[in-house]
Amino acid sequence: MARITRCRGCGNPDFREFLDLGETPLADALVTDPDAPEERFPLVVAFCDRCSLVQITEDVDPEKLFVDNYLYFSSFSDHLLRHSRDHALGLIESRGLDGSSFVVEIASNDGYLLKNFVEQGVPVLGMDPAPDQAEKANEIGVPTRAEFFTLESATALRGEKGPADVIIANNVMAHIPDLNDFAAGMAHLLADDGVITVENPSVGELIARCAFDTIYHEHYFYHSCLSVDALMRRHGLFLNDVDYFGDLHGGTNRWWIGRTEAPTERLLATLAEERATGLGDHGYYADFGQRVEQLRDDLMKLINGARAEGKTVAAYGAAAKGATMLNVMGITSDLVPYVVDRNTHKQGRYMPGTHQIIKDPAVLTEDPPDVLLLLAWNFAEEIMAQQQAYADGGGRFLVPVPTPELI
Ligand code: JHZ
User: What tens digit of pLDDT does each residue of 186-201 get?
Assistant: First the structure.
């Protein structure tokens, strides 16, 4: 682990720290033995005045994050599966993709997205260093290499298979410390008339919704259109358009990138709006720490209040963001003894740092808690719909962001 001394994007040594969340364990390092010692790492966030990139200041080795300790399988959300299918089918139609095309997805996880291209006869390749997810993808017929995407692997891939007509990189551009190498790899692999689509939660929404819990060591970066524009230009690529999905991961941007500069009105308007809002100025981020403190006071009042009335509180979603929420807020297993999650790979393990056991959501029917803290608040609608019986039986949902609220 090392602390950075320059902006990872533009090399500026004068980036400014604006949030210190203390030392936290790795958010996806679910624990098998709660008595064994756990590593913790500083979680500090900084802003670069020069290229507008928001980033954490510690580098944790990506092998530790995505190979040794990664149990996130994309296919456990129906909402994400629908969103991904729509994207794949939309690309096939708009780009006229067929059996002679080549689609590459970086961080393709368990094949949740590429399977839609395979089904339509479009050749694909997935790349993902997480071994179990890559194996699962191969099992369902999505050719996948368990590798990190780098300029070196992109160069080898282009030599072997030719350029890619489409490169998709969803929820991964935050995850690679050598951001320039990653962008250079995409630039190298892309066909001259190809397109890159990149999805990532918007840093503007993170700040607006006080979604501090989406900050953890897997996320080296928190992107805006401004920072993506600057990054792509450095590599001979151009950000040309942006879509926005308010209901995905707390507000997600989809950026459309190509080799020729052709910005849409929508992109220009969004860049102007980001500038006007202040996403390119340190001042916009400066009071975020105080807002997190306020959220802590409000949330802990609700949890402690419920416990004082003799109520039981459990949590839903052994999400990475759940680990930040529990650890930064100090929600110990005395207050909230267990977390439920339908990802069977996570069940039976414990949350990092705070050590709540992870159970099958079936316990909510067998022995319902009075209050259910929604750690996976980004899927609130989907989860509440599934848990209608829990609510009908008098159970309350506690949604922690943007302002803690009992529903
Ligand atoms: P979820 C992940 O973060 C991982 P996490 C990663 N670091 C990233 O960048 C972001 O996504 C974008 C469960 N669940 O998706 C599944 C149910 O049990 O918010 C997950 O364990 N029942 C790559 O981990 C967790 O909740 C359900 O009905 O914060 C949600 O995790 C649904 C919908 C989910 O991401």
Answer: 999 999 999 999 999 9
